[in-house]
Write a structure and sequence with these properties.
Radius of gyration: 21 Å
Largest sheet: none
Distance between the termini: 38 Å
Helix content: over 70%
Oligomer: single chain
Strand content: under 5%
Structural class: mainly alpha
Number of strands: 0
Shape: elongated
Order of helices and strands: HHHHHHHHHHH
């Protein structure tokens, strides 16, 4: 009885781009963390501006005004790069899982398709969004303490001198929060953080993969999108996904930033009791558009971060394993 043969183009894809065994998850996590650190080095000042505008937006007229005042108040290292150590830790605790798990799940699905004699890229957009939700949710929950430290350290210098916490580094920040406020408080704001990351990762990773697949087939960027090492195709894919992700995630970002930076009085009472309480009070006092406050700096930060991190992850993975990450 004749054996079933793969169509020529599918067979070529399976032999050229897939190895008999998948890349270990641990390797995928390292690629994700390193690519995230590269992006964070460039984008961190934009994150500081975003956090300070979202937690105290009335203090700044616009993004440029915020950047100017932060620089005048604290300089580059203590101002625009405040909390960068937390940003790096965040990439190992969050970015690694977010990108690494997605890339791993995507490859497993491709291998299953090849084993069934199907085109390796026969993966629905819904499946890609679900993979992004899964990886983003897991990574975000693990990385919430580093996210909290990033928000605290990024916004500390805007407080009056008497109210500043003056954390020396990310380890000091996390240790003091655990000691002074309780271990569980390291996950303060975890609900909006995880919800945001779930939606953000779903849009970022799922949309990037979908658009990348479309552009690869279109021929606009050469055969299989290989023109200039695939960089123009990745740029277009990640830029589009950044815009979609920012629209979806910004309301959760505002709630997360406010919950994580809110003051606590001497009796231990916080300004907001929950994400819902924060949502209601913010919209009631400042209007519905407060949910998209800081949209421009958030997009200006998210777009290069997405472009750099996902491109680095894809190219680093290809350089080491011969496979794509997305």
């Amino acid at each position: 009885m004749p054996t079933k043969q793969l169509p020529a183009n599918d067979a070529t894809l399976s032999k050229a781009t897939l190895s008999p065994t998948s890349t270990p998850l641990a390797h995928r996590l390292v690629f994700g963390a390193l690519s995230g650190m590269g992006a964070a080095t460039f984008c961190h000042p934009l994150d500081v501006i975003r956090v300070q505008m979202q937690t105290d937006g009335v203090a700044y007229k616009n993004t440029f005004d915020a950047a100017t005042k932060i620089y005048q108040r604290a300089g580059i290292l203590e101002g625009l790069y405040a909390g960068v150590s937390a940003a790096y830790l965040r990439q190992w605790m969050y970015g690694s899982f977010r990108i690494g798990i997605y890339a791993y799940l995507l490859e497993q699905t491709q291998l299953q398709n090849v084993a069934k004699g199907k085109n390796k890229n026969d993966i629905s957009f819904g499946q890609k969004l679900a993979m992004g939700c899964c990886s983003g949710g897991i990574g975000s929950f693990i990385g919430t303490p580093s996210e909290l430290a990033l928000v605290r350290m990024s916004g500390d210098n805007k407080l009056p001198p008497a109210e500043r916490r003056n954390y020396s580094n990310v380890i000091d920040c996390i240790a003091r929060i655990g000691k002074e406020e309780g271990i569980t408080k390291l996950w303060r704001g975890a609900t909006p953080t995880v919800l945001r990351a779930t939606l953000l990762s779903s849009a970022q990773l799922g949309v990037t993969s979908e658009i990348k697949g479309y552009l690869s087939k279109s021929g606009w960027f050469g055969p299989n999108g290989a023109y200039f090492y695939g960089l123009p195709m990745m740029f277009c894919s990640t830029l589009c996904s950044s815009f979609v992700a920012n629209i979806v995630a910004n309301p959760f970002d505002v709630m997360k930033s406010r919950l994580q930076s809110m003051p606590v009085d001497a009796s231990g009472k916080a300004m907001y009791s929950s994400m819902g309480d924060c949502f209601v009070k913010s919209v009631k006092s400042e209007g519905v558009f407060v949910l998209w406050r800081g949209f421009f700096p958030a997009f200006v930060k998210l777009a290069p971060y997405t472009v750099i991190s996902l491109t680095l992850a894809d190219k680093l993975t290809r350089a080491v394993t011969g496979k794509d990450a997305l």
